[in-house]
Amino acid sequence: MSELRTEELSRRAQDIIERYTARAARLAKHVAVAGLLPHAPPWGAVSLPDYEALAEESEYAAWTLLNGFALNHTTVAVHRLGAAGLSSIYDVTAVLKTQARLRARARARHTRPV
Question: Is the whole model's pTM more than 0.85, yes or no?
Answer without folding.
Answer: no
